[in-house]
Amino acid sequence: MKQIKVYQNDRYKKLGDLYGLFFEDINHAADGGLYAELVQNRSFEYCEIDKSDYTPLTAWEKSEDARWEVINDRPLNAENTHYLKVEAAKKGSYIKNRGFNTGIFVEAGKKYDFSVFARFDACADAKAVEDEGGLAIMVVDEEGRVCAKADALITVAASDAWKKYELELAAETTTYNGRLVITFDNVGIYELDMISLFPQDTFMGRKGGLRADIAEALKEMKPKFMRFPGGCLTHDGSLNDHDRNSMYRWRRTLGKVEERPTWRNNWRYNQTLGLGYYEYFCFCEDIGAKPLPVLPGGFNPHKGEGVPIENIGEWVQEALDLIEFANGDVNTKYGAIRAEMGHSAPFNMEYIGIGNEEIGEGFFERYPYFHNAIREKYPEIKIINSAGPFAVGEGYVAGWTSAKMYGSDLIDEHYYSSPEWFLANMHHYDDYDENGPKVFLGEYASWGNTYYNAIVEAAYMTHLEKARAVALACYAPMLCNVDYVNWRPDMLWFNNHAIMKTPNYFVQKMFMEHQGTDEVKIELSELSDVIRLIDKETISGGVVIQGNDVTGRIWDVKLTGKNSGEVCEATDIDITNNNEYKIFDTDDENDYTLEFKFKRSSGRKGLKIFFGKKANSFLLWEFGGWDNWDCNITSTVNGRGSTISHRIFHVEDIEYTLKLEVSGRNIKTYVNGEMYNDTTDRLPELEELYVAASIDRGTGETIVKVVNLTGEDKNVEIVLDGDAKTMAEVTALEGYELSAENTFEKPDYIGLLKETRPVKDNKLAHLFEAHSVNVIVFK
Ligand code: AHR
Question: Whole-structure pTM over 0.90, yes or no?
Answer without folding.
Answer: yes
